[in-house]
Structures are given as structure tokens and as C-alpha cells.
């Protein structure tokens, strides 16, 4: 039988929601808040773990990747999910399985368009997604709140308050969602209108409107105007050595075949829509921090009416949870179905997903495909004042809870937490204890890469 991208066997339930809730309550007798909130440092070599991930990436892109990671402890944290994944594997855990993001830091939430062309706010990165224990996402989010708060220059007292309030918003979000019916949980209200209605009439609301206005201007034609030019050979992507360049590799040489394979993984209506487009150009295009250095591409498609569609192809690497802890075997077998895993996780976690989501397998790697910059934008964390940062972080905590409640086992989380505010303190203690570990790893990285 062919492999499937996401194994959902251990999150399908037969018990009632009440029984699941009781199981969660009983679990707290085995794994207390105190145990869950105690960080246990590990004896490990961060350079070795990072090098095993680097071995999977494009060598010529590593200097720019390291430069981006070296900007601050927060950008380093964003680019080294493998380190925290390793540490989380050796911490106390409830082992309540849900579909998790795997990398739920503050920078991985943002705005994007629903299939109905409504702007929604939700998680927007799923490279590390899969079935795992829910608290992994919570801890990564809380650590990111602390690191981003430090980068913004907020006081330790304010950062502590923010971290604790984000844990509270997650707790309240779980409890609220589990009071709703199964079908209501499946249709969460993550559209911008709902988010705005919950925001106070303050600078936070006006700032959110700024990002909304920016998102609404981002579409394929805007990408064409910014990233392409008209040449003697037709419209082509503009080469930029660090970000965008035309390459001669397996993907670009066989792009027509791979796009055909991708079209078999999308809905029939989307496949029919894509049949009206012809391939115009393809170029390697790398952005971000965590995924910079992997094999990513932009594909320019032109319709029979002269309009354009820009697709983004991203390499689907094995999750850092496994990738950094084993001797890597870079074969097609190792990466098989990783693209499918990411797409299926995204469709489960997001309240609405890009209709162009799909995947394909190349000769040596797995990839997933999505529309590029279709009303997509992230919040510029550096531009936020204290009040805005605090409110944004709380919103992310609540959204994470809502997304976790797409999994049938979520009532066990509700039972385990039991809307107990002691949970907030325990999670805050773990996050604050982990920040020095990130800073130590960052110092080791700067020592290893002094020129970046």
C-alpha cells in the first residue's frame, strides 16, 4: 500500500466527549502541572544538531541562511526548530496527541485569503506539522513571546505578563472551543471581521487595519509587477543572487511533469482552472529564516486571457523532530509523502485553506505547492508597541487553542487543564526557564559562525 502523508490512527476516537474529558482529568494525576512546567536541560551538541539539518539544504544558500539566523536570538530560534524539538522529546509530556503546527512561534501566524476571498487570520506555516503532543506547540509559542518581547525592548515584568496571559488565552480558548458543538468547532470564526470585532477601538485596531490593507493588495498581478520583467524571451523572473535566481536543476528541468503530478492532488475544480494556464517561467526563490536554504521555487503561469497566477513550490523536509536526531539518508524514500503530510496538516489546522494546496514527489525530494502571496502577510512584530504586542500574542494563543480543537482528542486537553489558572503559571515557568537555553545555543552559533 502507498504511504499516506499524515497518520491519523491514534487521534480517531470512539468515546464520548465526556469520557475523553475525564481521561484528561485522570491524566493530571500522572503528569502534574509542576512536572509539565519543569524544564529539564539536556546534554547535547547544538552545532551537531544544526549541521544535520544543514546537510539537507542547498550548500550555496547556507551563508545567507546563517546571516539571517545571526540577527538576534529570536531569529536564531526561528531557524533552529530542531534544537527545541530535541529538548521537548526529553521533557515531561501528557502525550495527548493532536495535529500540531510543530513550529507555532509568533512569526508563523498571519493573514491570508479564504477560498471565498475573505481575509482570515490563522497559523500559516506547517513545515513541522504532524501528530504529536499539544503542549509542544504551546511551549514554542510562549518561548517566542519571551524572545520577541526582549527583541522589542520590553521590560522583564511586561514580558512575564505577556507570556502568562498567552498561556491563559490558550487555556480559555480550549475550554471555550470544547463547549461548542463538533460542527461549530469545525467552522471557527477566524475571519478578520471577527478578529476586528474582538479588538478594542485603540491603536491596536488601527494597526491591524494597516496589515489588512497591505494583505488585500498582495495578489499574483502584484507579484508579477514586482518580481518579473518583460524580456526578449517573454516575461521572466528577475534574478536576485540572494533570493531569486534561475537554476538548472531537477525541478526546473522537469517542471512540466511535476506540475502535472501536482494537478492530480488538487480538487477537480482547481485542476480544471489550472488547465487554462501555460507555464511561462520558473526560478528558485528563497525567503524567511527557518526554510531558507531548502529548495523553493516560484512558477509563473499565464492564462489564455493574459492574466497570471504565481505558484510557490517548497521542499517538504522531514520534521526537525526526526531530521536532527538520526543519521540522515537523503533518498526519495526518506522524504516520501512529506509534502502530503504538510498539506493535510494545514487543511486540518486552518479554518480556511488555499484551494491551490497540493504536492508532488520529484526524483529525490518531496514538495508542496501553494499560491504565492495571495493576500498573505504577516504582522511585523518590530512595529508593535507594548499594548499591540500583548494583544497580538494573546490572539495567537487563542487561535492555537482553536486549531488544536480540530482534533477529536481535544476534550482530553480540556479535561487535563480543567480551566485551572495554575496551568498558566506552569507553562510560563517552563518558557522562562528555556529562554537561557536558547541564548546559550545562540552564543554557540555565533562562535561557530562569527562572520554571520
Topology, element by element:
Blueprint: H1 17-27, H2 33-36, H3 46-54, H4 62-69, H5 73-79, H6 81-88, E1 97-100, E2 109-113, E3 119-123, E4 130-133, H7 135-151, H8 156-178, H9 182-186, H10 192-198, H11 203-216, H12 220-227, E5 228-231, E6 234-237, E7 244-245, H13 250-253, H14 255-263, H15 268-274, E8 277-285, E9 296-303, E10 308-315, H16 320-323, H17 332-335, H18 338-349, E11 358-361, E12 366-371, E13 377-378, H19 386-404, H20 410-417, H21 422-448
Antiparallel strand pairs: 1-4, 2-3, 2-13, 5-6, 7-8, 8-9, 9-10, 10-12, 11-12
Helix pairs in contact: 1-20, 5-7, 7-8, 7-19, 7-21, 8-19, 8-20, 8-21
Question: Can you tell me about this structure?
Answer:
This protein is an alpha+beta fold. The chain has two domains: 15-216 and 381-448, no CATH class; 220-371, no CATH class. The protein contains 21 helices and 13 strands. The strands form four sheets. It has a six-stranded antiparallel sheet. A three-stranded antiparallel sheet has the order 3-2-13. Helix 1 packs across helix 20, helix 7 packs antiparallel against helix 8 (156-178) and helix 8 runs parallel beside helix 19 (386-404). It comes from Furfurilactobacillus curtus.
